[in-house]
Every structure is written in structure tokens, then in C-alpha cells.
Amino acid sequence: MKVVFFSAKQYDKQFFNRENEKYGFAPEYLETHLGPHIVNAVENGTPAVCVFVNDKLTAEVIAVLAAKGVKVIALRCAGFNNVDLDAAKAHGIRVCRVPAYSPEAVAEHAVAMLLTLNRKTHKAYNRVREQNFSLNGLLGFNLYGKTVGVIGTGKIGRAFCRIMLGFGCRVLAFDPYPDEALEKGGVVYLPFGEVLREADVLSLHCPLTPDNKYLINREAIRQMKKGVTVINTSRGALLNTHDVTEGLKSGHIAYLGIDVYEQEEKLFFKDLSAAIIEDDMIQRLMSFPNVLVTGHQAFFTEEALSQIAEITMRSIDQLCNGKPVSEGVLLA
Ligand code: NAI
Question: Cβ(266)–Cβ(279) under 8 Å?
Fold first, then answer.
């Protein structure tokens, strides 16, 4: 049974081929993103395609997939803002995702970004390699005793809260569905605006939806403490990059760590070291000494990739072979 993988990298092949020993599917790995330009590469009669965060499953793309006989779209990620689920439903295509795969991988990366920024280890690393052991410019701040605001306390946000509580931080959260266990553990839920006003560090762990695009915009930044640190490992368009850049220029935002970026599909997961990057916004962001950018790598651990391959292949098998489908994976 053929499965076409889009946006496939060497590590995807490694983990999926290993998992495929259980199933014996015929995987075809394409490096390119799925979009209108390439959807015709899917051969007629292909039952399943497997996609990632920057593949664009618009109504137009889904209509072509349906005409080619595709029955299953398997997202090998948790977020699904890039798929037109109504179009999939209208064509009777089943859509599944990996609802949870090592939420700690993403939470720990958010913490890594925070610790890099507050202790400037990225600068220290380069400096000592040049035998410069001076401490000037490396002054950091303690996380202990700071107020950390967490937006979204699902699987990843919960893991992040637990780590921050362990650091001795005061943890405030906003989520329309507060988590009782977290509250018992010491997390205090407050309205969104109050979390913004109180937080020394703000970390985003909610999904991107049509309602919360640019959740962090000029108005939100205005409400934040001067000197705030903002971490986004969720989805790029939760931040209005232009407004955040203004916030950095004015010094209102003291540190920014982003693993996601609103225009990331043109950049991330590619080696562009010899290319001229036309995106001035990311170039400006990367020019700030107090900004750390990673290229959507928060999920990228052994444990997470193994779980992604396991759950995705199991879902494809279940959906294509009429078996009962595991709880939580179906979107349409
Ligand atoms: P989840 O579904 O377990 O939790 C999301 C939480 O956000 C829920 O509790 C929900 O009530 C809350 N929420 C929804 N809208 C909100 C809003 N406007 N304000 C505050 N809270 C809101 O999702 P999970 O697994 O924790 O993942 C969160 C996000 O992390 C994903 O949607 C995805 O965008 C991102 N992600 C990033 C990865 C990376 O490698 N950088 C990897 C995996 C996920």
C-alpha cells in the first residue's frame, strides 16, 4: 500500500522506515512541501499521504487528492492549522494527527530557549572559543522567584508549568479550560490580560486558531511589563512579528525566543546557508543580540520522532484497513 510522504527529511525516512518493518507499506518520500504546485505528483490510486507542519492542505489541494483516490491524510504533527478540515470532510477524506508525542520535548526546548536567553550561554559559547573569558555583557537574571505566564495549559503547557514550578517560579496561566491538577500544584489561572501584566516571562503553548492569530500584538505588548521575556514554541502567527520587532526596538521586550515564525515555510527545515534570504523581517529579528531563533526544532528528540512514526503508521494502518481507530487521532 503506497503512502506518499511530503516534506520528508533524512530523519523522517530513518524513523518511518524502521516503523514500517511492522507494516510493509510502500513509502514514497518527497522532500518538497505539499501545495498546488506538486499535488499532481501523487499517483492515482494512492490511498494515503503523510504531511508535516508547513504542507498546505487547502481546499484546492484536497480536491485534487480526493480525485486521485486519496482516502487518508496523516499529519505527523499535533497542530493542524494548515489543513482545511471542512474540505476534507466534504470529500470524505479522513484526517488524523499525532495528538501527543513527548510533550516534554517541546516544553524542555522552551525552557532551553529561556535559559539560553537569561544566562546568555549562546554568547558565552562563542566567546570562550575565541579565548575571551571576560564576563562583560553576560549579566543574566535568576528564574527563581520570577513570575512566569503560560498561555495554554494543554499537554505541552502543563509540562512547561511543572518545570517552571520546579525552578521556584510563580506560575500564572491562561487557558479557557483550567487544569485542576496544575492548580493544586500551585499554578494560578487568571484572565489573559492579567497574565500579560504580571509576567516577567511569557511562554505560548496554545494552538493557532482563526480567533487567536496575532494574539501577541501591539496592544498585548503594551500591557506587558517592560523588560518581559517572550518565548514562542507554538505557532508563528500567534505573534505579530512586526509588532514584536517594535517591542524589541523600544526595549519593552527584553528577550525573545522563537522556535516558530509566521513565514517559516519558506525558510525552516532547509539549509539556506549559501542563499540570499529575502525575508527582511526574520533578518531583522536575527540581528538582535537578545533574540534567539531556532528552526522549529522543539519536537526534535529521539523519543518524539519514535512516537510520531509509531502513532502515524498505526493510524494509517487503522484507517486504510478498516480497523478501529485509536482515540484522539481523528480530526475528520
Ligand atoms: P493541547 O491541545 O494539548 O493543548 C492546547 C491548550 O491550549 C488547550 O488546553 C486549550 O484549551 C488551550 N487553548 C486553546 N486556545 C487558547 C487560547 N486562545 N488561549 C489560551 N489557551 C488556549 O496541545 P499541545 O499538545 O499542548 O500543543 C500546543 C501547541 O504546541 C500545538 O497546537 C502546536 O501548535 C505547538 N507545537 C509545537 C511544536 C514544535 O516543535 N515547536 C511541536 C508540537 C506542538
Answer: yes
pLDDT tens, 299-326?
Answer: 999 999 999 999 999 999 999 999 999 9
SS3 232: strand
| Ligand 1 within 6 A of CB of 264 | no
Q: Closest ligand 1 atom, CA of 260?
A: 41
Q: Is the C-beta atom of 260 inside 6 A of ligand 1?
A: yes
CB 53 within 8 A of CB 297: no
**Displacement of CA 292 from its chain's centroid (Å):** 15
| Ligand 1 atom with minimal separation from the 176 CA | 11
H-only helix segments in the chain: 10-20, 59-67, 85-90, 103-119, 121-129, 155-166, 180-185, 192-198, 218-223, 241-250, 280-287, 302-320
What does pTM read for this prediction? 0.94
Ligand 1: centre distance to CA 36 (Å): 28
Q: Determine the Cα–Cα distance for residues 320 and 212; give it in Å rounded to an integer.
A: 34
Q: Which domains does the chain have, with CATH numbers?
A: 2-101+301-320 (3.40.50.720), 103-293 (3.40.50.720)
3-class DSSP state for residue 120?
A: coil
Amino acid identity for residue 151 in this structure? I
Q: Whose CA is nearest to atom 35 of ligand 1?
A: 234
235 tagged catalytic: yes
Over residues 179-183, the mean pLDDT reads: 98
